[in-house]
Amino acid sequence: MRIDLHTHSSVSDGTDTPTQLVRKAAEQGLDVIGLTDHDTFDGLREAKLAAGADVVVLPGLEMSCQLDGASVHLLGYGCDPHYEPLLDELARVRVGRTGRLPEMLAKLAALGMPLTEDDIAQQVGASPSLGRPHVADAMVAKGYVADRQEAFDKYLYDGGPAYANRYSCDIRRGIELVRQARGVPVVAHPWGRGRDRELTPAVLSELAMEYRLEGVEVDHPDHSAQTRAALRPLAERLGLLALGSSDHHGLGKVDHELACETTPVEVYDELVRRIRSRGGQL
Ligand code: AMP
Ligand code: ZN
Ligand code: FE
Ligand code: FE
């Protein structure tokens, strides 16, 4: 079985619709795909409908969280998509996503790259979750940069010249909310992009022991071989499930091809067993 549990559709900042994403998964011979759009469950219904008998869609989301002010991402699998406290928190995060736009546009204008809110809206389309990649797409459309990566590398990276901070959920609260929604919380790419500074072994241990975090991504394109070799035994020692996923964003992100990383079937089976046993969403 081939299992890729972290992907994004155009319902957040991926470039494939949920239907296109599921078709692509089937074409590539994937048996299971986890749809984990940023801060929304809105793509799940379409993905499930498109899946038919070819491929299983595991319902998920990727929550924008923070730890001591640093941005960290939390995956939640099998959450009840109607659990109000979680929905309220996601709405708050999405409001923050839109709210920071004027500051980003002012910074870009000062850098000689004026964009209007309408330019951004054209890229966002029907997505309820406005992300920096949409701003990057608007920059590409205006010819300011060649692609998303150049926009991030020069201007939009965390703390970059066109970056604006936004509200995100404390990760401890995020883990609690996912569990209350009968889901399984997993930290996404914990040691990618310098996050090992905040998500130290001691902090991961606290999240596992006191907050009942249940897994971490180990095999992820943002983790080097060395990082994986250090993270895997730590995950085992803390009793955390070790997932592997592509974090595919369609054409929007290089080196994140669908199924470039996968989760072992035993880990997937355990994930499903836990979701089922607590009455979560499958
Ligand atoms: P946002 O959700 O608006 O904070 O944007 C975060 C998203 O932008 C991530 O989920 C990635 O898809 C993308 N992203 C963040 N940092 C980078 C980077 N340095 N290079 C490329 N893409 C990035
Ligand atoms: Zn993304
Ligand atoms: Fe992420
Ligand atoms: Fe992601």
Summarize the structure.
With 282 residues, this protein is an alpha/beta fold. It has eleven helices and eight strands.
Q: What does the model show?
A:
With 282 residues, the chain is α/β, with parallel strands linked by helices. The chain has 2 domains: 3-82 and 168-277, TIM Barrel (Alpha-Beta Barrel), CATH 3.20.20; 101-156, Orthogonal Bundle (DNA polymerase, domain 1). Helix content is 42%, strand content 16%. The chain has helices at 18-27, 44-51, 84-99, 101-110, 117-124, 132-141, 148-156, 171-180, 201-211, 225-237, 265-277; strands at 3-7, 32-35, 56-67, 70-77, 169-170, 184-187, 215-219, 241-244. Strands 1, 2, 3, 4, 5, 6, 7 and 8 form an 8-stranded mixed β-sheet that branches. Strand 3 and strand 4 form a beta hairpin. The model has no long low-confidence stretch (mean pLDDT 97). The structure holds adenosine monophosphate, zinc ion and fe (iii) ion (2 copies). One fe (iii) ion binds at residues 6, 8, 62, 188, 247. One fe (iii) ion is lined by residues 6, 8, 62, 188, 247.
